[in-house]
Specification:
Length: 266
């Protein structure tokens, strides 16, 4: 997204801070509201709907009010899915542009009419549909796949921090307007240790004793993704990657479609 943001060094971190702050406050308000609406916790957990949150809505607003509130919840989930697919498309295109994915030349193509990575968009759409279809045949498999999202996201965030700490003396980093100053090293290492700890916990089975039915198979999915990524890098990508192709891509776009000050797509 930084490629399309004016003054990204300042506005990017500001947007992240604002999103975390607003989400934290709204999430806290929602949690408190849900707790106030709890009546009989055991009956809510054993609800015939299979959705405790939906039962809370029904208890609080009745059939009509509960249905309306649940409709809003579905709407929020829909827009969340759209936002997630947008982010996935951006990442798929970025990785393909740097030849880090299979069929990178196809996924990184820009449609000459829309000037957008249509191939990457459809790849994400079809891949997402395929993942959700797995739940039709095996809920346990789908749960294992979706359970990897939280630790995978956390590890992807902290990997950048770890790389910075390991290579800060070998690579020249240019600090932006948002820095941690003299506290950077301490805060970075605390965040690394915390994410490694919480990611390990997220791989634990949810209940004991552990059986084949309640085992958390997210670790298996994570191991497969890591093995595939390492194999792809070793077998193909490491010999093909020649650096980001952002400038090359921009040079192919007509001048009238570029922002004069930032060299990015309007």
């Amino acid at each position: 997204m930084s490629e399309e943001t004016h003054d990204a060094a300042s506005l990017g971190p500001l947007a992240i801070q604002s999103a975390v702050l607003v989400s934290g406050i709204m999430g806290w308000i929602l949690t408190i509201s849900m707790c106030f609406c709890l009546t009989d916790l055991d009956s809510i957990l054993r609800t015939p709907t299979g959705l405790p949150a939906a039962q809370i809505f029904l208890n609080a607003g009745g059939k009509t009010g509960g249905t309306i509130m649940w409709g809003f919840a579905i709407l929020v989930q829909f827009f969340t899915g759209c936002s997630a697919m947008l982010a996935d498309t951006r990442m798929a295109y970025a990785f393909a542009r740097d030849e880090a994915l299979p069929f990178s030349s196809f996924l990184s193509k820009i449609n000459k009419y829309t000037r957008t990575p249509v191939n990457a968009v459809w790849f994400v759409v079809l891949f997402s549909i395929g993942l959700n279809c797995i739940a039709i045949g095996s809920t346990q498999t789908a749960t294992a796949i979706f359970s990897i999202t939280a630790p995978a996201l956390d590890l992807s965030y902290v990997s950048v921090i770890l790389a910075h700490r390991l290579y800060k003396d070998k690579v020249k980093f240019v600090e932006g307007p948002f820095t941690l100053g003299r506290w950077a090293a301490a805060i970075n290492w605390i965040s690394i240790v915390w994410v490694l700890f919480i990611s390990t916990v997220l791989f634990f089975p949810p209940t004991v004793p552990v059986t084949a039915s309640n085992m958390n198979y997210a670790i298996c999915v994570g191991a497969f993704i890591a093995a595939f990524a390492l194999f792809w890098w070793w077998a193909y990508a490491r010999g093909k990657y020649t650096g980001p192709r952002t400038n090359e891509y921009i040079q192919e776009i007509p001048t009238e479609d570029l922002d004069e000050d930032y060299g990015t797509l309007r």
